[in-house]
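Narrative progress, year one. The postdoctoral researcher (J.K.) led the effort to move from monomer predictions toward full complexes, under supervision of the PI. The following entry was the first complex the group processed end to end, covering 398 residues in total.
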Amino acid sequence: MNKLSIRLNAFEESATLAMAAKAREFKNRGIDVISLSLGEPDFKTPAHICEAAKKAIDDGKYFAYPPVAGYQDLREALAAKYQKENNVPYKAENIVVSNGAKQSIANAMLAILNPGDEVIIFSPYWVSYDALVRLAEAKPVLVKGGIENDFKVTASQVEEAITSKTRIIIFSSPCNPTGSVFLRSELEAIAQVVSKHENIVVIADEIYEHINFTGEHVSFASLPGMFERTITVNGFAKGFAMTGWRVGYIGAPKWIADGCNKMQGQLTSANCSIAQRAALAAITDDLAPTFAMVKEYEKRREIVYNLLKEIPGIKSNYPQGAFYFFPDVSFYYGKSDGERTIKNGDDFCMYMLEKAHVSLVPGGAFGEEKCIRLSYAASEKDLREALKRIKNALSLLN
Ligand code: GLU
């Protein structure tokens, strides 16, 4: 009795969601916590998207099960977006809409991997990559990008890590948790390595596509020879402030899209009908609200970067996209406030939650013990206050 599956023990609880739950617990106790743990826009979903959802309810046509892979018009609109904005010739048959990008990735892992296969994960990585690989009974192979290279993995590192068992390579750009953005030349070099291995599929997680301050987003599938072996993951949560609507999607070669469709048909069926109508408005209407949010994020990046620089001992890269900082805080490991000693990132984050009332996520969950993740998808006022609190709390450590 009371025994859960071996499968469930193979991976950890999502650290991002666990930290968000802890922050919520503190808030429920009346403590004024500033939440910088969850990667969640503080903006509201733009009004025209909400209006589309309301209209869909009033139309009375969208109450039944949608097709598993998503409404045809939404898939066509997403394919058109890929053709126009990303230079990738996806058609509707290549698109599968899911309950968030997390499900898109889970579908892909479960549809492609066999037990014992290896998956190269660029590290630092988003928490769920590792867990989903383990869920599929495959083996995560972490390839690490150091802070000195803006946390980016190089093509030669990828080449070294590939074995006859490598089946998938997964990374995000712009990256969660580091904010790094791969340049075209860097992705081209990786594509060249991949093209030598016909068994390998690349999962390019491009959910932060819009939140990119470099001026160019490069879709991996647009590079020579990569269309046939790339799954492009995207979603509406980040660029359109639609986290709760749960709409993610992939573009992929038809055989993979069909596999994901079959998987999803048994797991969840289609994504919510009304959320899909909202997503259609988001992708076909004005992108001005998205660009306005991105401008705000860019402003906040400067603020946080400058405030972090003022804190002794903290090392940070200068993120080029997404809305995260991933500073190295290991200078503080081993230090104590007289009551407790900060041994690692978990202790650091608990100390910050309890002492400074700021929630962050320990870097270990993303593959780098020395770092912590800070989401700057929060108001300027909250960010300034949070950084002040963090600085004060750290000044108490010796
Ligand atoms: N992707 C977001 C994050 O990294 C949302 C939480 C999650 O699903 O992990 O914070």
